[in-house]
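R.M. (postdoc): so does anyone remember the format we settled on? I'll just put the structure tokens first.
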């Protein structure tokens, strides 16, 4: 079992959600987050005044899956979220020791 986490641009969320649904992913967790990568924010002008935006709005998508599906999930998310411009995001996969479904008490792969 693994947790696939992707941090993407907000406008890419619908495309990523649709691509994951088409792949057969049953559920995911979406969070609004802020951060920066190599671009370290950017400068904007508002009413003639220039100011620096340090943290950019992003969306974090988390998907629990079997280890066998992880590569497919990463590929689908990367393809759906890619614009080719700086700030497209990152995807990483984390191994999980256990998962428990609270409602039924199921554990392991059946809890996904």
């Amino acid at each position: 079992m693994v947790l696939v986490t992707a941090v993407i641009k907000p406008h890419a969320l619908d495309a990523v959600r649709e691509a994951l649904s088409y792949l057969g992913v049953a559920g995911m967790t979406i969070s609004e987050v802020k951060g920066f990568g190599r671009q370290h924010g950017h400068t904007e002008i508002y009413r003639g005044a220039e100011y620096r935006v340090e943290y950019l709005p992003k969306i974090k998508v988390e998907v629990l899956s079997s280890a066998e599906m992880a590569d497919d999930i990463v590929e689908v998310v990367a393809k759906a979220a890619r614009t080719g411009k700086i700030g497209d995001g990152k995807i990483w996969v984390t191994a999980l020791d256990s998962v428990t479904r609270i409602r039924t008490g199921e554990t392991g792969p059946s809890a996904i």
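R.M.: ...and that's the designed sequence above, right after the tokens. Also worth knowing: The first helix runs from residue 13 to 23. The two ends are 9 Å apart (CA to CA).
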